[in-house]
Amino acid sequence: MELQGILKAMPDGKSAEPGDPRRTGQENFPLPGGCPLSFGPPANGPEGDKSGSGRDRDKNTSTRGRGYAKTGQVVANPLFLFGGSFDPPHTGHLRAALECAEILRPSACLFIPCASPPHKTGRRLLPFTLRVDMLRAALADLAEPLPCPFSVCEVENERPGPSYTIDTLKLLTVRFPDKRLTFALGCDDFRQLASWRQGREIPDVADIAVLPRSGYGLGDFAAALAQLRPDATLLPPGRESPPEIESACVLPLGGKIMYISIPTLDLSSSLTRARFLRGRDISFLVPPGVLALLRGNAPYVKKIWEE
């Protein structure tokens, strides 16, 4: 089916030291409350994925999609990845992640702060450690029970240089060889994905969950998808798929791109920064723990954000 019919067809870096457990490829990211992140049996049976070593998977990402049924059903219990600069994390980030967790039912949701975003060279970010602290404070404010464990993943601070999404995703496929990855992208970013490093190949490494943003919706997704991956095959609606997945397609190597309709909050980190710098109260724009950290470090935060 042609993608044009999509609307009608479906409703500062630091390397890990030798001996550091982050180098083992078997990392357990800490969760709120100190609970280790553990997964159930491998998705491909008791013996796991037999597609080869992590090095082979890095060279040929097609192994990720083997055995993946081409149906409209959502992949069961993926590892959901929510990346961003989080400068600062705000309520919109948490709400979007919670919506996706309820819809996709992942085994865990990892928030991945960008250490050195290549597309934001014009201004300084707050230090990585402070942004991580804010994220952890934001997650600590969430009421239990959650649909799945929410945790902060510091993987992008393990290597120097720009933090490219393709590199992070390939690393995580090695660290979690038995988990299927689903990476969240706002529809505005999805429209620009072709300009990212190896952007066209990103959906071959991890499934993509495209989320609406203010001013960008399903029509924008359809147009961007047709340009980015004309080799995609539109999937029929799955009877067991959540109704919020309004459109989905599968790629030749088995990757899946889906558009998930969730409520949008017209909120951004840039708006939050601007209000904070003007001395406005940003309560309810950011979680209480984030607000406390910003106020406690206000002179330092303002100095960086004003540059």
Please describe the structure with a list of short key phrases separated by commas or semicolons.
307 residues; Rossmann fold; 11 helices; 8 strands; disordered N terminus
Give a brief description.
This protein is α/β, with parallel strands linked by helices and 307 residues long. The protein has a domain at 3-13 and 74-267: Rossmann fold (3-Layer(aba) Sandwich). The protein contains eleven helices and eight strands.
Care to describe what's here?
With 307 residues, this protein is α/β, with parallel strands linked by helices. It has a domain at 3-13 and 74-267: 3-Layer(aba) Sandwich (Rossmann fold), CATH 3.40.50.620. The chain has helices at 6-9, 54-59, 91-104, 128-140, 165-175, 187-191, 202-205, 218-228, 269-277, 288-296, 298-305; strands at 79-84, 108-113, 150-152, 181-186, 207-211, 233-234, 245-250, 256-260. It has an eight-stranded mixed β-sheet, sandwiched between helices. Strand 2, helix 4 (128-140) and strand 3 form a beta-alpha-beta unit. The relative contact order is 0.19.
